[in-house]
Each structure stands twice: as structure tokens, then as C-alpha cells.
């Protein structure tokens, strides 16, 4: 199995002293039946428009070309659409295009939504997360809402405050990993649910 994670710097765990981020923590807690390769393909400050323009080329070089290899795509959406002023309609379309191309390529997709950022962006990130969730749901693609459960979570807020309000630290990435692991990750990989602790 080859899993490509595409997204912005949050996919790489910027701000995590252990340098694991949520992706490293999720993989560490996943017991694959056969060896798996995970590639994190992140671009700092990237919007969903920029992600849509590059993901297919970058994953093609890492995905297996033959039927012996299972290719999987994780779309890790950040908060830069809000900061760059993209409309929600444009963000929706960008994700829809990514998921439709992945489906046409017979690549199973999994979407992780944007986590909370600064309080000033809260309402717009919430709206963006809801829009992304709707796009994924319409395509029957698993979606992890990281915004709603973390927006008022004391540990998340404390972690963000320590990081200057931009990036979480170890605790915050741990919370994101927990949400991913408990929102269909194992089922999407075809692994037993009891692997999650």
C-alpha cells in the first residue's frame, strides 16, 4: 500500500517538538497487514487551488503503476483558503475536482479538514469545514471534521496559545491524530477497528 498525504505545512507537523505531527502519530498507531509506504507531500501556505494544481503530478511519481499496489490519497486541507480570501464556492469546487480525479484514477481518498486557527478566523474556518464535509459526503469519501471538536477544546486552545496561535504543538497534533483514528481511518484502509486504542 502506498499512501500520499497532500496538504500544507500542518500535514508535516510544523510546531511539533517531536516532529511527528498528526500523520506520524496516526501511522504509528496503524498496524498494516502488509508493509505500507507513506509520503507526506506538503507545501507551506498552500490554498486548495494550489493543491489542486499539483497533487496529481506529485502523487503519480509515488503511486504504484501496477495492480499489485494499493494507492491511497489523504487530502489534508489547511486554513489558507480563508487567509487568501478564496470563496467557499471556489474551495468546494477545488476539493470536488481533486476527489473526482482521484475516483477516476481508482484511488481511494480520505479527507482531513482544517483545524481551528486564530479566533478571528473561526467563523470562516467553520463554514469552510462544513463545505468540505458536504463535498466529501456527496462523494462518499470519509471526512474528518477537526474544527468542530477542537474549536472550544481547552487542550487545543492552550497548545495553540503556546505556539503563538498559528500552529499546535504535541498535544494539538495528538488531538488531531485521535480524531483521524476514530473517524473511519481503519475502515478506509480495510483494517480491523479494534486496532484503535
TrEMBL record:
Domain of life: Bacteria
Domain SGNH hydrolase-type esterase: 5-174
InterPro entries: SGNH_hydro (IPR013830), SGNH_hydro_sf (IPR036514)
Name of this chain's protein: Lysophospholipase L1
